[in-house]
Amino acid sequence: MTSRILGDTLFPTMVVGSLPRPQWVRELIEDRKTGRLAREDADRLLDSAIPSAIRMQERAGLDFVSDGEWRRESYVKVFAEAVGGFQADLIGGDTSQFSNLRYPAVVSRLASERPIALDEARFLKANTGARVIVAVPSPYTIGRRMWSAGHSTPAYPSREEFMEACVPIIRREIQGLVELGVEAVQLDDPWLALLVDPDYRQREGITDLDHEIELSVRCANEAVEEIEGVLLSVHLCHAHFNRRHLTRGSYDPIIEALGRMNVHRFAMELSTPDAGGIEVLRRFPKDKVLGLGVIDHTDRHVETPEEVKDRVERAMEFVPKERITLNPDCGFSPSSSNPMDFDEAYLKLTAMCRGAQLLRENHGG
Fold it and tell me: How many helices (H) and strands (E) does the chain have?
């Protein structure tokens, strides 16, 4: 199935999802959130803006494109925008550099109100001939990010119960994306990767690492149960805002668990030094595809195609070329308020695609 979707060409290139938004789009999303602009009016304006994000990716040379996630306030808040039961801005940021970010908390039982990503995907498919990738948040990350003991226990007494309630909603959304003809679906699960940082675990009061890892694995497997006909990915990263990561550390504590997730591919942040080095790929599951992070989105330096090529060839010491796809470490702007540069993202994506071409010339395919 993976070869059918990825094709015969080696080193296919993908985005993780989000792209930097122009200032007017960021303001539009904020106006929609506060009610100053009706959702229908916002959608009409975004319908005219999003094709430029698609054209940028096509021009850069990507094999799989997204809509830039320009309709979303954030990769995880998109769930709360589509599902009833949340109250906005009840949960604060985790550290000083993230303190300006606030998140919804679940305060009543969940009730689906509209699609999470299906309408976005339908518009994307209508506006490109390329293969597409669409991301939805994982139940584990939704639970870690938007459940609060102070606000959520009347609705869901435990975080785990809330995660379980998210699973069927995510599964239905993925099935709808498959029926629409989306080629690749990505579960965003950065909160699994954050577990590798002992300081994060201490801040969050996490004392049983194995329990948390297994909870993430179980939620992912339940969300993709009986899903067929699509490339299923999980994205792992250390979360970022304004070019700084929330955590740091090697994937060593979670790498074995990846083999127990019933997905095809893992898009992993590996270019940044905060990810702890590429040697962890010695233990990468033998039956999975690696989405190798070859672009450090937090670094203003624009990689050269040769640097991309070198990073991939280093990874090829551990993972065969037939099981490597290329992507940036993360989405460039998982939060609409993240102050990233659109032109910089274009140059980095272009370098990634040109690096992939160098690799094909040197290694076949």
Answer: 14, 11
Ordered alpha helix ranges (H), the chain: 2-6, 23-34, 39-60, 77-82, 118-126, 139-146, 149-152, 159-180, 190-194, 198-204, 209-223, 252-258, 305-315, 342-363
50 Cβ partners below 8 Å, 6+ apart?
A: 67, 68, 70, 71, 123, 124, 127
Banded pLDDT at 95 (limits 50, 70, 90): very low
- Whole-model pTM? 0.96
User: How deeply is 101 buried, as exposed, middle or buried, from its count of CB atoms within 10 A (0-12, 13-18, 19+)?
Assistant: middle
Q: How many whole angstroms separate alpha carbon 196 and alpha carbon 30?
A: 33
Q: Dihedral (C-alpha) 36, 37, 39, 42: value to the nearest 10 degrees?
A: -140
Between the alpha carbon of residue 3 and those of residues 10, 141, 169, 309, the distances in Å are 10, 29, 28, 22
Rounded distance between C-alpha atoms, residue 20 and residue 77, angstroms: 17
Positive or negative CA dihedral for 170, 171, 177, 180? negative
Distance of CA 305 to the CA centre of its chain: 24
Choose among 318, 324, 307: nearest CA to 363: 324
Convert the pLDDT of each residue in 173-197 to its tens digit. 999 999 999 999 999 999 999 999 9
Phi/psi of residue 361, nearest 5 degrees: -65, -35
Q: How far is CA 237 from CA 23, 27, 52, 329, 333, in A?
A: 25, 27, 27, 7, 13
Hey, what amino acid is at 266?
Answer: F
Amino acid letter for position 23: Q
> Is the separation of the CB atoms in 220 and 138 below 8 Å?
yes
